[in-house]
Amino acid sequence: MIKSMIFICPLILCSCRMRITSFNVNGIRSFSKYVMKSCRLRFNEYVKNILRADILCVQETRGREGALGEFHSLRDYITFTNTNKTNSSRSGVSTMVSKKLYCRGVLDSPFAEDGRSLLTDHGEFKVLNLYFPFFDESSERDKSEVIGFYDAIGEFIRGHDNIIMCGDFNAVYSIIDHYQFYSELLRIQRKDRPGLEEGAKERRRARKSPTRLELPYEFYAEDALESYLLETEQRKWLRSLIDGGEYIDAYRALCKRPESYTCWNTMLNLRPRNLGTRIDYILIPARFLNRLKDCDIQPEIHGSDHCPVYAEIDFDVVDDGNNILSKRKNNLLDFFGL
């Protein structure tokens, strides 16, 4: 006896252009206060009307769960948050999804308990909101822990072809995305560069008294500068990811402009001079490239040491009965588990 089988096909409500925005706000409560003071807008209205985000991925939210309640009762967005369980003053990521969209909920991802990742499932695609750890030689953090994070994310996304990664990667992979390296590149390319004879055997020379705005070396050739850039493991990891072809840097797919920075050293007041780095990315699977319609950075947006980056991508809005956004009327109660 052959039993009849009923398949429920997802209902495509509409095809629309979604704007996914990533923004390291350097403390969401302080940023919200800045928005109110400078723009006279509540956070919900700012996200909707200024950022115009359908999905907003925020990094460095910071704060205990109970202190972030106001961001879990927004009029037009459902908010998902992963906080740092051991130190609430560090890290934290939130993803805010327009109530007009589709979302099945949050899935497991590496280092979610550290407030450094959050994966939301939107059916046709998933969004992985990431805040990569930072490391330098003066940092208290062990370098192996930082590299371990990058490797874990690389292993996690392997085999997936529908995860959009966005966030603060704390690394550049190209000379033109770091002001010190780009400045050195321009110096190399100048014909009147002093002391750099054609065919010199030295590939780089230590600067005697480098300023805080210079690299510790001066270089004789572009390939030597490139090699120095990739001596950092995090940069090498990111370059390998992009060169592998499975993921596309959405911004660079549409814009090759140098000096397009998303982060500046505010202690040195470098933002007015646009001396920064581009370490905030939206990376899309290669198969979504033909759906990518726009991507840009927004340096005119202040309130943090970073600025937002957004991508507009065409997707179908579906309804298969699993859309939790239509079921959660007040996600403030859900946030507190009530």
From TrEMBL:
Belongs to the DNA repair enzymes AP/ExoA family. Probably binds two magnesium or manganese ions per subunit. Keywords: Endonuclease, Hydrolase, Lyase, Magnesium, Manganese, Metal-binding, Nuclease, Signal. One of its GO terms (molecular function) is phosphoric diester hydrolase activity. Residues 1-22 form the signal peptide. One of its GO terms (cellular component) is nucleus. This is DNA lyase apurinic apyrimidic endonuclease. Mg(2+) binds at N24, E60, D168, N170, D305, H306. Its cofactor is Mg(2+); Mn(2+). The keyword Plastid does not apply. Residues 22-306 form the Endonuclease/exonuclease/phosphatase domain. InterPro entries: AP_endonuc_1 (IPR004808), Endo/exonu/phosph_ase_sf (IPR036691), Endo/exonuclease/phosphatase (IPR005135). The record marks H306 as: Interaction with DNA substrate. The active site is at Y131, D168 (proton donor/acceptor), H306 (proton acceptor). The record marks N170 as: Transition state stabilizer. GO terms for biological process: base-excision repair. The record marks D280 as: Important for catalytic activity. Pfam families: Exo_endo_phos.
